[in-house]
Predict the 3D structure of the following.
Amino acid sequence: MSATKRRNENPNQPRVKRNTRAGQSESLIDLVKLHRRIASGSASRLLQTPASSLVTLFVVAVALLLPALLFGLSSNLASLLAGFQDSAQVTLYLQDSVSEADGQKVSDDLLTRRDIESGYYVSPSQALDEFSASSGLEDLLIEMTANPLPGAIVLTPWDVSPAAVDELARELQELPQVDVVQVDSLWLQRLAAISNLVSAIGSVLAVIVILGLFFVVGNTIKLAIESRKAEILVIKLVGGSDMYAARPFLYTGLLYGLGGGILATLLQIIVLATFNSNLEVLTQLYESDFQLRGFGLMSSLLIIVAGAAIGWMAALMASLRHIRAINP
Amino acid sequence: MIKFDNVSKRYADGQEALSDISFEVSRGEFAFITGHSGAGKSTLLKLILAMETPSSGQLIANGVNLNRVSATQIARHRRQIGTVFQDHQLLHDRSVYDNVALPLEICGYPPSDAARRVRAALDKVGLLKKEKSFPEALSGGEQQRVGIARAVVNRPSIILADEPTGNLDPGLSAEVMKVFQQFQSVGVCLLVASHDAALIERFNCRTIVLEGGKLLADQKPRPLA
Ligand SMILES: Nc1ncnc2c1ncn2[C@@H]1O[C@H](COP(=O)(O)OP(=O)(O)OP(=O)(O)O)[C@@H](O)[C@H]1O
Ligand SMILES: [Mg+2]
């Protein structure tokens, strides 16, 4: 009775305020405990229907995986590109009139430039030897009286950015001994364009997937709410807000997103392992050790966080909409 | 605290459950609402709890105009009211303890504080030993008492009880009424719908009699001889 007497002094004042003021740290721990209980309640409900939960989880994972794989492919192409640019070469084809000695001299002079890392001279006869060795046309070439190949200087610039390489090429074109300057950049540009395209497709797909996830998670939440209508009604009757009633469902959505994100990063490992074992055959042919890289820690975390955020948001929208509709 | 002003309630199917009801109940007042089955007792309580809206007339409870309320206002309004439902309205997947703790959890009470209040409320209705049971495992009367404990645990400003003693024997009924009277003595406004004539007779409180949705009589307590 003493408790109710206290109540009498101040019958209409909300009593909660007084309690929260009592101890901030204690109430924070209580809050964490409460949310942990709600979350574990939501988790155990998911485990009660393992089959349908797993299907939803898998759908979420695959949906997250598709755009992520495209972004991954795009970034792999970009790094492949960067690898080639590192070894960007500028080839100067010299005039026919330039002798071997002069050619060697031009090459040595160029090596003193600050913007050139390394380089070497290829005399017309060396060029012919190399060509005949690699083409397998030795017999035919022996028949030829004159060597049709010009001398060349192969340079590796310090700065491999396309602009710097172009600038260098333009300067070298001015040299009187130089006939043609060739920068092998066109196919690099094409590869870069493909990489951008893949990334753009990834972005569009990401938008579609987010919308799809809202639908999938929203629908799952809707069914969960329908099956717990009586419970939600009781909560509302004793004064629980829509947001309060929605809390367990927000955790359900969060868990789907989180689980889907984790599953997506695991699936990604399997997909890449499969690709890489096929890629090995191809890269061996090209004497390359190129490998598709996985998402990496940051990207994996991003997928998991994005999944969780989408799941939570989808659940928020769906639950508030459907809980609002539940009335006595 | 509760003011009905020419309130009528017509359900969607055209059934007029209440017509032209006017009365006022103030703080610390205890009133029975009685009448035959279908007289409109539950409807009257549902209007106060904002489970239904009046078709016409004005209804104000606890300072809230119930003719026009938002969802947020309704939730806040219901937190100030302890309700015993005719059909109990318990959560069947939660223990007796958790059922009674629900209003406190909604208001954000710290668990240690809540635990004390839940046990005190369960003690008042004699169910302290059953706190770990689930509603299905309880008798009708025990479920009813869980509902009563839940209605009083939050120390509301208004208590609405719809047939709170319907499943209780006279002894238990009397105890429940005593619990209600304790709240009356600290300024809580109580409305108890009942057709238990003996109980109403015995407790000698204000009695509002409904008949076919109309207010037949509003009897003040008999003066003590
Ligand atoms: N949701 C509803 N829709 C339509 N009619 C309703 C609804 N609820 C109640 N009624 C009608 O309103 C009238 C009053 O019902 P109410 O439940 O208020 O009676 P009561 O006095 O509580 O009866 P009881 O003692 O049996 O509980 C009844 O005729 C009933 O049929
Ligand atoms: Mg009734």
User: Anything to note?
Assistant: The two ends of chain B are 29 Å apart (CA to CA). The mean pLDDT of chain B is 92.
